[in-house]
Design goal:
It contains 22 helices and 32 strands. By secondary structure, the chain is α/β, with parallel strands linked by helices. It binds zinc ion (ZN) (2 copies) and fe (iii) ion.
């Protein structure tokens, strides 16, 4: 059989659970080819035979299904097979499929919505409708290969009709692992706080809609966990939800049924509309319309509001029920916030929800499809890019994006071992590498309670299970006391080698990895506080970082501020303001009007400052924002991280064009005299200049100073590029103005596009540090004579 063309293709990438094999099957039929497709450890293997086999590859690449993504494709000639009569899809054997990626969860597709809206369809109104193009993936998958048996759908045997779809390669539900219908699939029911059933099936969702319309607070089991929901237009319900959740001010996310409703509540650009309705369905931060129907209590600190569109069939059915109740003209909007008590991870199981949310919700919408791994909603916003087009910025990366990998640049020698980045203390994520791909897990949260630490452990195990790799080394933060650092040194870590990398160096390495940059840069890490290499509290740093040799130096930083009372100063920014006043020579800050509200604390702070007791210093940019805000009487005491900065940002008078002086002091290291900014804030505030004007001048002065610092540091280090990272890059003025000013100075600017600039990116920086470090170590062992730190 040498006269027959047979080609063998090995495809790697996101090619499971996304309709890839049926697509291959259809294509083979169209081209009149025989052969096979199967999952193998090296990827999906396709063999095609026939006269038109040579056309197969080009068509495959050009017509890929929407969710599939190819990262590697090898095509070779194969020996022809005599007597082959058909093209077949071979079942995957357990333990196979090592090179394929699990897809993130995908919002309900238009075809499935049409099925659900059709009274003659057997899935009419069914809240678990899905197909190969949509539905749950990552959150219901235990391990690979991605087959029904390894998902939480394993306990729902397919009915005859569903099985026929599942086995028909020409059906939209061919091998759709979560395939289900009202006969064989998961069901919903509604309970009270004690777990007693109030309604089932369609009636449960109708009753839920009624409860919401009447102002109740409802726990709703979703895709990656429970939401707490209430009517977003009902001021009293929103206030009650905040009271029960002990969340006085932090913005609440709102789900709206469609783009039209989103446009009534907020300004929505074309880019923002695309993100809102895209298959990832993140929460998109938008500029709210003043006087919209939303309750004032939704986001009291900013003019922005986080909106998202329905992403599961259940959400669509719920909005349908609300529309029936209130009439087509009334477009409902629902608060949909993570179902958790403050600071804890999102709830996942039915019993867990009744136990943990019993005091928070009035009724519970439950269902019997298990969520295997928690995933909060992702949060993004669109920034005007340098060319005027929108650039996405992540605030939180979770559902819809995880576990899509970051493709790394060439690190090391190609035989990259697996490395696990353990993440930071706050806004933790984990990062597991596999070859040249880095898998950053979903947002975990602040590692300050056992529940969150437990969630961290779940994700660690889950990532290893769905990627089928074990780490050869761990990378932790330099801080010795973090829970993650202690875990790494403890018995549970199994004695794996542990590397440590400084927090802000990890920030810079993360931006570099996202941009596949391999040359040295100056990184500007504008952050809260992180443990410095000298044991101090860093957070406003200009660092030289060489991602190849891993050599780094601190070239500059912001002027230090006092943190009277340590951690307490982070919750009570008035302390930092008083410390700044003390540094400016006001040893008695008594006359400051807002300090009288904090007697006798402020007298104590004065003594601390005088004696230098419990007053650590920090170069943190976040604390600088806190100080400036508090000098203006904003965010004197805060209930969530970044609140003071957010208030200060929102207060800016955009018509003001003046900027405060922010001198750069030469030396090693360079020091940006940010205390001078605070002096001008103080002077103008004392002189009665309006808060909006002072805030704007502060922002513009800081941005200009930071650009000068970065440009000078780049000059000193002899590099052309500046990388921007750190939680302060979430400040809209910094995020838009700083890259612009740097570009004006002829500096190449690298920013985060795939991960948040805040601490959600740290685990990636840690992981690439580990990969490179191990590669350098091997090179040295092999006598290549490379030196590294
Ligand atoms: Zn679908
Ligand atoms: Zn069925
Ligand atoms: Fe950080």
């Amino acid at each position: 059989m040498h006269d027959v063309t047979r080609r063998r293709l090995v495809v790697q990438g996101q090619v499971q659970g996304v309709g890839f094999r049926p697509f291959v099957y259809r294509l083979a039929l169209e081209l009149g080819l025989t052969g096979l497709v199967r999952n193998a450890p090296e990827g999906v293997v396709v063999e095609v035979q026939g006269a038109r086999a040579g056309e197969f590859r080009a068509r495959l690449e050009a017509e890929l299904p929407p969710l599939a993504r190819i990262v590697g494709l090898e095509e070779t000639d194969a020996e022809g097979v005599a007597g082959e009569a058909a093209f077949r899809i071979e079942a995957s054997a357990p333990g196979q499929g090592h090179a394929v990626l699990i897809s993130p969860d995908v919002a309900t597709c238009a075809d499935c919505l049409a099925d659900m809206a059709d009274p003659d369809n057997r899935r009419f109104g069914y809240p678990f409708t899905n197909c190969t193009n949509c539905g749950p993936r990552y959150t219901i998958t235990r391990s690979i290969p991605y087959d029904r048996a390894t998902t939480s759908m394993a306990c729902f045997p397919l009915c005859e009709a569903c099985r026929a779809e599942y086995e028909n390669p020409l059906d939209r539900r061919f091998h759709a692992q979560p395939n289900a219908c009202p006969v064989c699939g998961p069901r919903v029911w509604l309970t009270d706080r004690q777990g007693a059933r109030l309604a089932e099936g369609p009636q449960a969702l109708e009753r839920l809609a009624r409860e919401l319309a009447e102002g109740a607070i409802c726990a709703v089991k979703g895709l990656g966990g429970f939401h707490l929901a209430c009517d977003a237009a009902n001021e009293a319900a929103v206030a009650e939800l905040r009271r029960r959740k002990t969340r006085p001010a932090k913005p609440l996310a709102v789900m709206v049924p469609d783009l039209d409703t989103a446009r009534r509540l907020a300004e929505v650009s074309e880019d923002e509309a695309r993100w809102l309705s895209g298959r990832e369905r993140p929460i998109v931060l938008l500029r709210g319309r003043p006087g919209s129907a939303l309750a004032q209590g939704i986001s009291p600190d900013t003019g922005h509001v986080g909106l998202m569109l329905p992403y599961t069939p259940l959400h669509h059915v719920l909005f349908g029920a609300l529309r029936k109740l209130t009439g087509p003209a009334n477009r409902a909007a629902l608060v949909m916030t993570s179902g958790n008590a403050g600071g804890e991870p999102i709830c996942l199981g039915n019993r867990e929800a009744l136990r943990r949310l019993g005091q928070l919700a009035d009724v519970f919408l439950l269902h019997d499809r298990d969520i295997l791994i928690r995933a909060d909603d992702s949060v993004v916003r669109v920034l005007p890019g340098p060319n005027g087009d929108g650039e996405i910025q992540f605030l939180r990366r979770a559902r819809g994006f995880v576990p899509s990998p970051v493709e790394l640049p060439e690190f090391g020698d190609g035989k990259a071992p697996t490395v696990l980045g353990l993440g930071p203390e706050l806004k933790n994520t984990l990062c597991l590498t596999k070859g040249r791909q880095a898998f950053v897990g979903q947002h975990i949260g602040d590692m300050q309670n056992l529940e969150t630490f437990g969630f961290w452990g779940e994700i660690r195990e889950h990532l290893q299970a769905v990627l089928q790799v074990r780490p050869a080394a761990l990378v932790r933060d330099l801080h010795p006391d973090y829970l993650t650092s202690q875990w790494a040194q403890g018995p549970e870590a199994g004695g794996l080698p542990v590397l440590a990398v400084q927090h802000h160096v990890a920030h810079v390495l993360a931006v570099l990895a996202e941009n596949r940059a391999t040359r040295p840069v100056v990184g500007l890490a504008l952050d809260g506080t992180g443990y410095g290499a000298d044991g101090g509290l860093w957070g406003g740093e200009a660092l030289y970082v060489d991602p190849d040799s891993l050599e780094w130096r601190r070239l500059g930083h912001l002027a230090p501020l006092w943190l009277p009372g340590g951690e307490a100063a982070i919750r009570e920014p008035w302390r930092i303001a008083q410390g700044a006043l003390w540094s400016l020579g006001e040893r008695d800050a008594g006359p400051w009007p807002w300090l009288k509200d904090f007697r006798p604390g402020s007298r104590l702070v004065a003594q601390m400052l005088d004696k230098g007791l419990n007053c650590p210093e920090t170069s943190s940019c976040g604390r600088l924002f806190d100080a400036a805000a508090a000098l203006l009487g904003l965010g004197l005491a805060v209930s969530y991280e970044g609140q003071a900065a957010m208030l200060l940002e929102a207060a800016q008078d955009q018509d003001e064009a003046g900027a405060y002086e922010c001198p750069l002091l030469e030396g090693e290291p360079l020091v940006l005299d940010t205390l001078a900014l605070l002096r001008q804030v103080r002077d103008d505030a004392s002189a009665g200049v309006p808060v909006g004007v002072v805030s704007r001048r502060f922002h513009l002065g800081l941005v200009a100073g930071l650009a000068a610092l970065a440009a000078r540091a780049a000059e000193v280090a002899g590099v052309r590029a500046v990388a921007l990272s750190g939680g302060c890059m979430l400040n809209r003025t910094l995020a838009t103005e700083l890259p612009r000013l740097l570009a004006e100075r002829g500096v190449e600017v690298l920013t985060h596009r795939l991960l948040p600039p805040g601490d959600g990116c740290i685990s990636l920086g840690q992981a690439v540090y580990g990969l490179r470090r191990l590669a350098l170590g091997r090179a040295q062992e092999q006598g290549e004579g490379r030196n590294f730190l």
